[in-house]
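Submission sheet (multi-component)
Chains listed below:
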Amino acid sequence: MLTPILVMSGIGTIAAIGLGIAGKIFYVDEDPRIKHVLDLLPGANCGGCGFAGCSACAEALVEGSAPASICVVGGAETAGEIAGYLGLGDVNIEPQMATPDCKGGSRAIKKYTYSGFDDCRAAMQYYRGPIECDHGCIGLGTCVKACKFGAIEMGHEGLPVFDPDRCVGCGECVRACPKGIISVISEKTKILHWNQYTECLAPCRQKCPAQINIPKYIKFIREGKYTEALLTIKERNPLPLVCGRVCPEPCALACRRSIEDEPVAINYLKRFVADWEMEQGTRLPIPISPSTGYRVAIVGGGPAGLTAAYFLRRLGHEVEIFELKPKLGGMLRYGIPEYRLPKKILDWEIQGILDLGVKVTTTVEFGKDFTLELLKAEGFQSVILAVGAWSEHQLKIEGDHLEGVYSGINFLEQFHGDSLPPVGKRVVVIGGGNTAMDAARSSLRLGSEKVTIVYRRSRDEMPANPAEIVAAEEENIEFAFLSAPNRILGDSGKVTSLEVLAMKLGESDKDGRRRPVVIEGSERIIECDTIIQAIGQFPDLKFNHGPMKLELPETRWHTIDAEETTLQTDIPDIFTAGDCFTGPGLAVEAIAAGRYVARSVHYHMTEGEIPPIYDQQKDFIYGSLHESILGVHSTPKIHESVICLEDRLGTFLEVEGTINEQDALNESKRCLDCGVYCYSEDPPELQQVSQVGIAEIKVSQN
Amino acid sequence: MDLILLAISAIFVNNILLAQYLGNCPFMGVSKKLSTSLGMGVAVIFVATLASIFTWLVYYYILVPLELKYIQTLIFILIIASLVQFVEIFLKRFSKGLYNALGIYLPLITTNCAVMGIALLNIKHEFGFWEMVVFSISSAAGFTLAILLFASIRERLFISHVPQFMRGSAIALVTAGIMSLSFMGFCGMVN
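Outcome: structure written.
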C-alpha cells in the first residue's frame, strides 16, 4: 500500500520541482503593463483589431506595434485610457461605421430564387450571385449573422440596415459579405475616396464631377432628414449654396428618369437643403480629424482653393489661403453676377469653411508680396496653386482701343469697385460663353435698352449653360448667330458701331465642333455704343516668369502643366488645381479638383507618395443607361419660381427662388434611387392608374 | 515493413478519432475553421509524441519493476499535465514562433483524451520503443487528418441550409458518424 503512494508522491514531487526549476530558468520577463492594458480593453475578443483576441492585442499595444486606437469596440474612450497609461499622448481616433454600397436589394434579385440557401456565401458558390448585376446584395443576411454586436438587420428592401449606435466598425460583416458591398469607412476615407468601376454608381453619380452621392441625399430629403442630406453633399462639395444656384447639372443629363419624362431637378433639391441650413441660422457641425501638424499654403481663394482648404482642414492639416483680391471667392464673387448668386449667400458659405480653422491672407500677390521661399521658410510643406483663369483673350481687330470697348471679366469685376461700369444704351457682347451671358444680362440690369450677343457659331454650339441662354432669351436679349466681328467703327475716339461678317459652319474640327467659315462680302453693321468682348480666358501666370524664377512648365493653352493623375507639378511640393490647370471650366469641376488635389497633398505629406486610384471610374459605365424604364410613369418636373421680367430690369435681385418644402418632398419622390443597373419602380397602384390612363387615351383616339 | 503497416493502420484503419472516438472535445470544439483545426492537429502531434515517450519510459522503468501497473492512469495524467506545462514554459522562452503558432492549443491539450488514449494504447499493445514512437506519431497524424477533413465539411455546413433543430453540434455529430462509417472502409487495407 505504501509503495504506490510513495511512487505517486515521488513522481508528483519531481514534476513539481522540475516545473518550478523550469519556471525559474526559463522565466520570460513579461511586461506587467500587458496585464494592465488587457484590463483596459473591453475583452470582447472580436478580432476586429486583426489580432487573435484581446491578449494578443494588449501585447502588441505594449510593444508599440499597434496604435492606441486599434480597439474598434472600445472606441475613443478606451483609446484615450490606453494612450494615457502607455504615455502615448494624443490619440488619432476616428469613429468608423459600416455602410452598405448596394441600393438594389430585393428589387435587383427578384428574378433569381436562391432555393435552399440561407447564406449569401453558399449562393455565391453555386450561382455566383445575380447574373444581371455584379455589384448587388444577395440579401440572405450573412452579414446579420456575422455581426457580433447585433447592429445589422435586414430591412424591408432586402438590404442590410446598420444601427449606428451599435456598430463599432469591427469589419466582421465586411469579411462575411461575398459580394464586397459593405465597407467600414471613416470620415477620412470618405474624403480620400474616388469613384471606381467596381462600385454601384447611379448614372448621375457617374456624371457629377464632384462625385456627390446624389441618390443618397435625395433619399434623405424624401425621408425629411435634411441634416443627413446636407452632410452627404458636404462630404464631396463644401459649396452647396453656390452649386445649388450656378451648377449646370451635368448629373441631370444622365438622369435615368429622362427616359420616361424629365430628369429629377437635382440642383433645386441641393439648393433647398443648402438654403434650409442657412435659414436655420446655425451651421451643421463638420467633423475634423485631429491635427497632424502639416501645413499647406493655398494660392488663390476661388472654388478650387476653398474646396482644397476645406478638405485638407478636415483631414487635420493646417491650411492658409493667400488671395490676391480683397475678398475670397474668386470667379464665384467677381465673375458671377449678383442676380445669379447673391454675395451675401456666398459670404455665408465661405465663412462656414473659414470657421473650420482655415486662415486667410487677402490682397497679396504670389511672386510679389510673397514667394515660394517665404512659404517654405514659414514651414509650409506643400503649396497648391489655384489661381484660376483671369487673363482674357482680346480681339485683335481694327478699333479695339476705342472708348467703350471692355473685356468681359474686367467688366463684371467693376461691380465690386467704387462705381458701376458705364454702359450705354446699345450694348454688343461678343462671345457665347457664360461670361458673355453674364455681361449681357448685367448690362440690361444697368439700364441698357438693347443688348445683342454676337457669336460666330450657331446656338447649338454655344458653350454657355443652356439655362443661361434661355434666361437671356427671356429677357429679350438679341442673338446674332453666325456673325464674326470684323472691325469696330468709332467717331472721335468713341465706339459707334460694330461691323460683323456672316459665317457658315464648315468641317468639324478635332473637338467635334464645326468650324465657322467666313462668307465673303457679307459685312453688316450693328449700331452700338458699348462693346464687351468675352471670347475666352486663360490663367494669368505672371509669377511663373517673374523674379521668383518658379519656371514651371506650361501647356500651349497657357495653363500650368502637371501630372494629370496627381495634380503634382515638376516641383514635388507644388500642386495645382482648377482653372489654372484645366483652363476655364465649371465651378463644380473646380470643386472636384479641389478635393482631388487635397487627396494628393494629404498622401504626399503623410506618406511621401501618392497611391494611384485603383480602377478609377472615368467613362460612363456601359449598360447603366436603359432604353426604357418599365414600371415608371410620367410625372412632371417641378419648376423653380422666377421673378417677373419687370423686376429683373434695373435691379440685381436674384432671379430664381428656392423651392418650398412640399415641392422638395414631391420632387425627391421622383428620384428612382438608381443603382448601376436597377431602379425603383412606382408602387403598383400608381402603375395601374397610369396604364388605365394610357388605355383611355387609346380608346379616345380610336 | 511492420512499422509502415503500423503507421497506416494507426492513421486510417484504427483512426484514433473516427474508429476509437477518442479526443472528441477538440474534434467538436476546434473544428469550425480549417486554420484553427490545423493548429490543433500540429499541437497534438507534438505533444502526443512527447507524452508517449515519457509515459512509456516511466511505465517500463518505474511502474513495471515496482509492480504498480494498476496506477498507470493516475501517473499518466500527472505526467501529461506537467509535461504540457513544461513544454509551454520551454517554448515560450526558446521558440517564440512555435509558441505563438501553437498558442492556446497547448494548454487545451492537457485535457485531451486522444493524447491519454495514445499513451495507454502503447502499453496495451505492448509496443517496443520504436513501435511506440511510430504509433504515437501516426495516431496523432490520424487525428490531424480527421479534424482537417471535418473542419472542411463544417465550413461548408455553416453556410448550408440546415433545419433549425439540427444546427450546431447536432449536425456535426451526425456528420462525424457518417465520417466514421466511411473510415470503416479502410478495414480491408490492413489485416
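Remark: The mean pLDDT of chain B is 85.
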